[in-house]
Amino acid sequence: MTKVTAVLITYQPELESLGKNLLSIFKNTPYCIVVDNGSENILELKKLCSRLKVECISLKNNLGIAGAQNIGIKKAIEAGADYVWISDQDTIYPNDFLSTMLNELKGRQDSNNIAAIGPSFYDNLKGKRYPFERFTPWKKSLPISNETTEVSQLIASGMIIPAKAFKEIGLKNEALFIDWVDFEWCWRATFLGWKILGTGKIIIEHHLGDETVSFFGRTVTLRSPFRHYHMIRNGVYLALYSPYLKWQNRLEIFLISIRWLIAYPLLAKRDKMTHLNLCYKAFWHGLSAKLSSISE
């Protein structure tokens, strides 16, 4: 039988929501590893994992999403996983999630060349379903449908990755810490000749930020200064130094990062000076390829 192990990353999780997440995973696979990134409520988290009979790896410090994912991925593969299912801490999956994803992946003639498949997602904050994207070579939003199609990138939550893909593509880039981590892995995979699939046959709910503000008729998602720092720093860095992207994609990412650099300090509802300081520090660190982490 195909063994699929879920790797779930937690950081300061809300335990009731996490419990629902884990139960939805168990309805799809009995194999799950929780990797916690130094949460303050780790004792309560361990009790929950013990009650649900889930392996919990507790990290003393926050290693970032990439570092925690890599620990879980290596653990899952060592235990014989054929596929690794990446999840965040608050996504609730339907009972047919895994069977649908695997059927879509295995049913293709090019299944041996697929690095990952992921679901469509609905953003609760903005109240909309996001389209998949493809570089052609400029970024193009694909029509929203229930079909399975080749895409350029996927969000982490719900991503199903064959264990064999990690041997050639490698693990996640830990220097990025958080933000752009899974996009960068997808770009690396396609650069090496693998394919990334997105399917609209499964739709998950996902939070893309902490709050929203209206700006000239547009809804803008805001996060913490810590997250804005990594979004801008990593965006600038990847735009300038990633060997896996064409110049059109690098230019688009650089311009997006500039837009964030201007917008986030301006639109922040609180701690404006902290946003301003960290956003401009992020821009400089991205330019100079300084990827050492900062404290939250």
Ends apart, CA distance between termini: 42 Å
Radius of gyration: 19 Å
- Read across the widest sheet, the strand sequence of neighbours is 3-2-1-4-10
Instruction: Profile the largest sheet.
Output: 5 strands, mixed
Mean pLDDT: 94
- The percentage helix is 40-55%
Question: How much strand?
Answer: 15-25%
Order of helices and strands: EHEHEHEHEEEEEEHHEEEHHH
Backbone structural class:
alpha/beta
Shape: globular
Number of helices: 9
Low-confidence stretches: none
Tell me the number of strands.
13
Key descriptive features of the protein:
296 residues; 5-stranded mixed beta sheet; 4-stranded mixed beta sheet; 13 strands; globular
